[in-house]
C-alpha cells in the first residue's frame, strides 16, 4: 500500500511541474500576443482595409519610383553599416578576448558606453562633431585635406548608425572568441603553418557563429533607424521608417503606412532567409576547412 502511494505521488510530480512551467510562461505569452502578434495582425488588416478593402495601398507603393528608391536606400545603408561594423568590431573583439582581465574590462566599458546615453544626445553630439565648423572638419583642414560636407549626407548617416550599432556586433563575436582554445592556433603554428594561415583556417571558422549573429542583429536594427537619418541626413537620405512616419503621422494614411510596414517585414524575412542559407553554407565550408 505504501509503495502504491509513493508511486502515485511520484507520478503526480511531473504533472504538477508541467503546470507550473506553463503558468510561468503565461506572462511572456500574454506580452507576445498583446504587444506583437495582435499589433501585427492589425497592421496587416489596415493595409488591406484602409480606406477601402483591396490591394490599393500596395499598388500605390509599387507604382511610385520614390518608394522603391527609399526601400533600396534603406537596405543598402543597413548592409553597408553591417559591413563597416564587422570590419571595426572583429579586431576589437579579438583584442578584448586576448587581453588581460583589467584591459578587457576597460575595452568592454568603452564599447558599452554608447548604450548608456540617450540616442538623441548621441545624435546631437554627432551634429556638433560633423558640422562644417566642427572638430572633425577642423582636423581635416589642419592636415591639408580641407573641409568636406559630413552633415546632411550619406556619410554622416553611416557614421552615426555605425557608432550606435558597433556594440551589437562586438558582443556576439567576443562571446564566441573567448570560448576558442588558443592552443589550436598554437598547435597549427608548431606544425609548420604560418600565423596568418592558422588564423584564417583555424581561428576565423571557429568564430563564424558570432560573426553571423552580429551581422544579423546589426542588419535588422539598421533597417528601422529613424532619428539618426532624420537629423544627420537630408530628405535625399530618407529611409523607410521616415516614409512610414510621413504617411501615418503627417498624412494620416494608416493604410499606406501599414502596407509599407508589411512590405518591410516581408522583405526583411526574405533577406534573413537568404542570409541564413548563406551562413549555413559558409559554416559547412568553415567546418570542412577546420577538418
Automatic annotation (TrEMBL):
It is found in: Cell membrane. Gene3D superfamilies: MetI-like (1.10.3720.10). SUPFAM superfamilies: MetI-like. One of its GO terms (biological process) is transmembrane transport. The keyword Transmembrane helix applies. InterPro entries: MetI-like, MetI-like_sf. The chain crosses the membrane at residues 20-41, 74-93, 105-129, 155-174, 211-234, 254-275. This is Putative spermidine/putrescine transport system permease protein. It comes from Shinella granuli. The lineage of its organism: Bacteria, Pseudomonadati, Pseudomonadota, Alphaproteobacteria, Hyphomicrobiales.
